[in-house]
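quick one, two chains, predict together pls
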Amino acid sequence: MPQARTTNARDLAFVPGTELVFGPQAARRRQVSDTIARVSRGWGFTDIILPSFDDRRTFEGGDAHDADLYRFMDREGRWLTLRADFTLIAAKALAVELRREPRTIRASYEGRVFRFQPSGHGARVEQSQRGLEWVNAPGTTFDAATLCIAGECLSALGLHDAVLVIGHAAFIGAALGEKGRGDRALLEALDHKNPARIHELAKRRGLDATRTELLARLPGLCGGPEVIALARTIAPEPEAAAALDELEALARTLRESGASLNVLYDLGEVRQFSYYSGMMFKVYHHGVGEELGGGGRYDRLFDRYGLDVPAIGFGFDLARLTEALPRTEVHGAASVASATAGQGAQGLKSLLEARGRGEQAILAGGA
Amino acid sequence: MLRIALPTGRILKDAERFLAAAGLPPAENLSQTRKLMVPSQCGRVEYLLVKPVDSPLYVEQGVAELGVSGKDVLMELAPDILEPLDLGFARCRMVVAGRPEIRRSLDNTLSPVRVATKYPRVARLHFEKSGVPSVILKLSGSVEIGAVLGLSHYIVDIVETGTTLRENGLVVHEEVAQCSARLVVNRAAFYSHLSEIGAILDAFKSALEKAHA
């Protein structure tokens, strides 16, 4: 092998947080992605390939902060945004399809999303995701089925300890009230399950005692289906009650369908509040600190394209899923044929024959 | 067994007292041992002794399921973790301080103020919020000297009693936040060990109530 010539080390540096995966780790990543794709196909989903960037308006209204989007201008002076979210761009693509013919669509996607994060702390500015969108899919049975598909992906990967943590966007919306919904500091305090800070902010904002008490108890509304009943006692408004009815129906459907899922309810979940309108969930595994993926119902997202279409979906973070996997060997091909370049046409011929038999062919350098 | 990251340094003694009150005393005196990992007497948890600024990172990355960390450190690092309990000890204030006359001398000037601090993120966000252009100078300690000798107009730092500021001729100009020790929890661990972590939270809460009673 030729030795590397001296070069400027800076020429070899990548932008921090971009993805670079190679070797066994890449093979495992491929395996993860193939497994999810197989499960998706098993539930009748077909691939959708989506643009890597689009008009900046497509990515407005997601949970990425405006300042974290990668924007650039093309030669015609149009402002474009690198794909920051799959659901938002899939919704646009599927809206085109639905305007032609209203129907149920099962679409699965894979690719990267791009969001700025300050460097340090293992920040990642591009993330590979695989997920699916189920469009014209209203009601509890679709909610439950979506959770089952996510659960099947996890067990197919051998992640039997993974937990699906379920919340509800309309419940949290009702709990926050008109004023609270746009309050970034309050949402952050709820996201960190920090009752002391919730009390402090409620006082500063002049919220009444009932609202304050409700908000401060949200972090504790986490556990089995019994927390749904507990939530009823502290959040009696009709809007909240309707959301809790939905969750109760979901819990019942999961139980009666015999789905074996590792499920928790967290009614204080505010993270993906952006475009979700109903049931929402996140996936955690004890081996990885942050969520492996998540999803939910977004019945109002198509409004912006003049359509009234209930839909639900989820996405997995492929890097984190791979990190959570048990460290098993990725098996190579069963039989391998090899030849060296020095063997010339004869060597190549033997490899072509091996490929004809479906074997793996390895051409090496040297004599 | 759950792991709890504890910050060495000024918080440790208070933390140790608190853990004993909560029924989870360490098997050894944490302030004296040279070990970095010490189990609790009951064997339910294991304590990791780490640098104060590292405690949130251990928890965020899931090496420790729980941790104790000063609010000042949490504000600076902004880790993606849960912060369910104010433990009440190690109280202090994060403040903007400087020489008494400095505020007047800065009136009517648009040039950025220079701020020396161990907390560059906190300082930057604070001055951004106040609409004051600033240049942040990151120091590792003795930041008061910065303001005394004119390296910076202001410092952003934590104060407990204010003695250090007073003895160096500095005064508090603004309060940024009230700080104290916080219990922090890894997000995935919170859900995967819901009942065990719930039990620890309850033990800590009742220790706090006892202390207030």
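The first helix of chain A runs from residue 24 to 42.
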